[in-house]
């Protein structure tokens, strides 16, 4: 079956057709690359300008003098190592709790098929229609009654109830080949052994996507950590950047934002293969 394109195969076979094709293709790639990378360049170089230059109108594209002191001052004055570590602890704990409980719940709903499983799944999906802001006050009162304020558990436990990731995992488990699971059952594997030895290894793409969703959600969250962490020393980086921004030079604040974004950018670059593989997670053939 032939695929219709803007240029026919005969046109691409001619030198002029190839030249037009590669010119348009290269120009489009460069345009999109510039559109996505220019804001990153502007933020990184903005931290290297002087305080007067960064607010100058019209702005300078390249710093007149390169100052690295903005990054060092941000690292020291805003106590970034401590707040980054707080964020890592909170994000890692939320990820672990969510992976364990969402995977177990999705596996139970998909393969164990409990009584009223569809009703339970419907109730879980119904929570997606409730605005997140409407749940803030009940969650805060619950956490306060349990004495978990200024405790990482205040971040970890609410993160477990993620209906979207649970449904994503269940849909993937539904598409797993039944003959593989039946073969494991014939060999004497129990439900838990099948989950650990068969289902989880086959689910690495979707687990990678769910992991990224879980980590990014905690890393960029602001309102909930602001409410549950009144102790400045225990606040994550998203809250600390706002709380400590008073009386801080703009270049130092920009540098702090650049440093705070590095872990998420690095994680995307490392796990981009899993993200792409997880896009087709629902197309697993039985």
Q: What keyword list fits this structure?
A:
single chain, 286 residues, MetI-like fold, 2 domains, 0% strand, MetI-like_sf
Characterization of this structure:
The chain has 286 residues and is mainly alpha-helical. It has two domains: 59 residues, no CATH class; 166 residues, MetI-like fold. It is 71% helix and 0% strand. It is built from 15 helices and no strands. The longest helix has 33 residues. The radius of gyration is 25 Å and the shape is flat.
The total count of helices amounts to 15
N-to-C CA distance? 25 Å
Q: What's the name of the CATH homologous superfamily of the largest domain?
A: MetI-like
CATH topology of the largest domain: MetI-like fold
Q: Please state the overall shape, judged from the principal axes of the Cα atoms.
A: flat
Q: Helical percent range?
A: over 70%
**Structural class designation:** mainly alpha
- The proportion of residues in beta strands is under 5%
Overall tally of domains: 2
The level-1 CATH class of the largest domain: Mainly Alpha
Average pLDDT figure: 85
């Amino acid at each position: 079956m032939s695929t219709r394109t803007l240029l026919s195969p005969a046109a691409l076979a001619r030198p002029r057709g190839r030249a037009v094709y590669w010119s348009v293709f290269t120009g489009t790639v460069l345009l999109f690359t510039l559109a996505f990378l220019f804001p990153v360049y502007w933020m990184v170089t903005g931290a290297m300008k002087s305080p007067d230059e960064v607010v100058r109108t019209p702005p300078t594209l390249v710093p007149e003098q390169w100052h690295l002191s903005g990054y060092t001052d941000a690292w020291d004055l805003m106590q970034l190592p401590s707040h980054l570590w707080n964020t890592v602890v909170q994000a890692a704990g939320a990820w672990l709790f969510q992976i364990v409980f969402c995977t177990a719940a999705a596996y139970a709903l998909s393969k164990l098929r409990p009584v009223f499983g569809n009703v339970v799944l419907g109730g879980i999906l119904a929570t997606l229609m409730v605005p997140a802001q409407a749940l803030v006050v009940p969650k805060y009162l619950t956490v306060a009654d349990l004495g978990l304020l200024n405790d990482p558990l205040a971040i970890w436990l609410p993160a477990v109830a993620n209906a979207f990731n649970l449904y994503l995992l269940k849909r993937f488990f539904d598409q797993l080949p039944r003959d593989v699971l039946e073969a494991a059952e014939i060999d004497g594997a129990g439900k838990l052994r099948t989950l650990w030895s068969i289902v989880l290894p086959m689910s690495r793409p979707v687990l990678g996507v769910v992991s990224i969703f879980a980590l990014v959600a905690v890393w960029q969250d602001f309102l909930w950590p602001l409410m549950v962490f009144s102790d400045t020393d225990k606040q994550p980086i998203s809250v600390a950047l706002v709380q400590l921004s008073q009386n801080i030079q703009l270049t130092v604040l920009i540098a702090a934002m650049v440093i705070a974004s590095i872990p998420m950018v690095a994680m995307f670059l490392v796990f981009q293969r899993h993200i792409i593989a997880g896009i087709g997670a629902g197309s697993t053939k039985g």
